[in-house]
C-alpha cells in the first residue's frame, strides 16, 4: 500500500484545460442499485480518507471523497495523484458507438490541480494517458456523449506504457471483451478499476509509475444471482523499457482473487466475497491463487 505524501509539481505551463464548476452540477455518478441489487463502493480506511482528495463541490450530506461523473465515480489518492478506484455502470442494451475525436484532457476543478497528474508526464516518451474507466463503458443512453467527454479527465487517467494501453492482448483486450460481452447479451455490468500503488513503484519525472492495474467485474447471471470476478494486469516488463527504470516481473494478465486485490491495494472488497467466481472449477483440492488469461479470453468467467 502506498504511503507517499507529496506529488510533483509539473509546472503551470503544462497544465490542461479546466471546465467551470457548474459543469458538474447535479452529477450523481455511479448508481449502486444499477444491477437491481446493491453493489456499494468499498469503505475507505481512516488513513485512506485522510489521503483522499476532497470534492469541494460535494452536495451536503454526500461523501466528499467521491467525484461523481456521468455513469461513473472515482476517489483520488491525492499524494499519488491517481485514483484509489473508479467504478462505472455499463448498460449493454443502450450502449452507443461514438467515434473517438481529438483527445482533450481536463483537470477537475472540484479538487486541486496539484492532486492530479497533467500533461507534463506524457511528453516525449512511451507513456499513454490510460483511461481507468474505459471511454466507451459509460457511453449509453441519452447522456452517452456527456459520459464520453467525462472520461477525459486527468482524474480518470493513469500512466500506462503505450503497448500496454493499446495492445489487444492486454489492457484494451480485456476492456473490449467486457464491454463486448455486455453488448451481446444486453447485460448490465458494474466494473471497478484502479492502479496498484506501492511505495517502491519506480520514480519517473517525479511521479511513481504503477506497475500493475486491477479490475473487478460484477454482474447478475441469467437466474438473477450476483457474481464477481477479479483481474490483475501487469505492465512492469514494459515500464522497464523507460530510461533508468527496473522491473520485477513480466507483463501479463491474470484472474485473481478478491483477497489478493485487497492485499495489494488496501481496499476492502470483502462484501463481494460471497459472490466471487471460483478461479478453478476442476475439483482440485487446492485452487490456484491466480490464473493467466488466455488469448481468447475464454477463462474471463463472465
Topology at a glance:
Elements: E1 17-18, H1 46-51, E2 66-68, E3 72-77, E4 82-91, E5 106-107, E6 127-131, H2 144-150, E7 157-161, H3 162-166, H4 171-185, E8 188-196, E9 203-204, E10 207-208, E11 212-220, E12 226-234, H5 236-239, E13 252-256, H6 258-265, E14 290-292
Parallel strand pairs: 1-5
Antiparallel strand pairs: 2-3, 3-4, 4-8, 6-7, 8-11, 9-10, 11-12, 12-13, 13-14
User: In the residues, how many domains can be counted?
Assistant: 1
Strand composition percent: 15-25%
Q: Can you list the strand order of the major beta sheet?
A: 2-3-4-8-11-12-13-14
Rg over CA atoms: 18 Å
Oligomer, anyone?
single chain
CATH architecture: 3-Layer(aba) Sandwich
Mean pLDDT: 82
The total beta strand count reads 14
Contiguous uncertain segments of 5+ residues = 1-15, 242-250, 281-286
- CATH homology group: Extracellular Endonuclease, subunit A
Cα-to-Cα separation, first versus last residue: 29 Å
Shape, per Cα inertia axes: globular
What is the fold named in CATH at topology level? Extracellular Endonuclease, Chain A
Name of the CATH first level:
Alpha Beta
Question: How does the helix and strand content classify structurally?
Answer: alpha+beta
Helix content: 10-25%
- Could you give a short account of the major beta sheet? 8 strands, antiparallel
- What is the ordering of alpha helices and beta strands? EHEEEEEHEHHEEEEEHEHE
* Total of DSSP H or I helical runs spanning 4+ residues: 6
Amino acid at each position: 500500500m502506498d504511503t507517499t505524501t507529496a506529488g510533483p509539481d509539473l509546472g503551470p505551463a503544462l497544465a490542461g484545460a479546466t471546465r467551470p464548476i457548474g459543469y458538474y452540477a447535479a452529477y450523481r455518478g455511479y448508481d449502486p442499485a444499477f444491477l437491481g441489487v446493491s453493489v456499494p463502493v468499498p469503505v475507505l480506511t481512516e488513513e485512506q480518507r485522510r489521503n483522499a482528495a476532497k470534492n469541494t463541490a460535494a452536495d451536503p450530506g454526500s461523501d466528499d471523497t467521491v467525484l461523481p461523473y456521468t455513469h461513473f465515480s472515482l476517489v483520488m489518492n491525492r499524494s499519488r495523484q491517481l485514483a484509489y478506484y473508479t467504478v462505472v455502470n455499463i448498460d449493454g442494451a443502450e450502449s452507443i458507438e461514438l467515434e473517438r475525436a481529438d483527445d482533450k484532457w481536463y483537470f477537475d476543478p472540484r479538487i486541486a490541480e496539484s492532486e492530479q497528474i497533467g500533461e507534463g508526464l506524457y511528453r516525449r516518451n512511451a507513456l499513454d494517458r490510460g483511461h481507468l474507466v474505459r471511454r466507451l463503458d459509460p457511453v449509453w443512453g441519452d447522456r452517452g456523449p456527456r459520459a464520453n467527454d467525462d472520461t477525459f479527465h486527468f482524474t480518470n487517467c493513469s500512466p500506462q506504457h503505450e503497448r500496454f494501453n493499446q495492445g489487444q492482448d492486454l489492457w484494451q483486450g480485456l476492456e473490449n471483451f467486457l464491454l463486448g460481452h455486455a453488448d451481446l447479451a444486453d447485460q448490465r455490468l458494474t466494473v471497478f478499476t484502479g492502479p496498484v500503488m506501492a511505495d517502491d513503484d519506480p520514480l519517473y519525472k517525479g511521479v511513481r509509475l504503477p506497475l500493475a492495474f486491477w479490475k473487478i467485474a460484477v454482474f447478475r447471471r441469467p437466474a438473477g444471482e450476483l457474481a464477481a470476478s477479479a483481474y490483475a494486469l501487469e505492465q512492469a516488463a514494459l515500464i522497464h523499457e523507460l530510461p533508468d527504470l527496473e522491473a520485477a516481473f513480466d507483463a501479463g494478465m491474470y484472474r485473481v482473487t478478491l483477497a489478493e486485490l485487497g492485499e495489494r491495494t488496501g481496499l476492502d472488497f470483502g462484501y463481494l466475497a460471497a459472490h466471487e467466481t471460483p478461479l478453478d472449477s476442476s475439483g482440485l483440492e487446492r485452487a490456484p491463487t491466480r490464473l493467466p488469461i488466455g488469448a481468447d479470453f475464454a477463462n474471463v468467467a463472465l
